[in-house]
What we know:
globular; Alpha-Beta Plaits; 88 residues; alpha+beta
Amino acid sequence: MNYLLGQFKVDLKLWKQVVTSDTALHREAGMHFQRVWRNIDNPGEIFFLFRLEDVAVAKAFLEKTGALDKEKMKRGEIPHLTFLQESV
């Protein structure tokens, strides 16, 4: 199983609205929202997890949307994204 872990400094309420509005697009890309966490020590920072059907398809979708732009990630303009593979 593959996952996408995101870290972002953003208001949780705002982020939930955006994710909810993009649910159909995420599903088309084989991305299934699993969970969101708020940093206890920094409530303005969240972590979120998507289960991925196909990493290549998800990466292509995220590349098309600009969500994999490393410079924007460094500046904190978009979430920092990490692709994970479940291990036994």
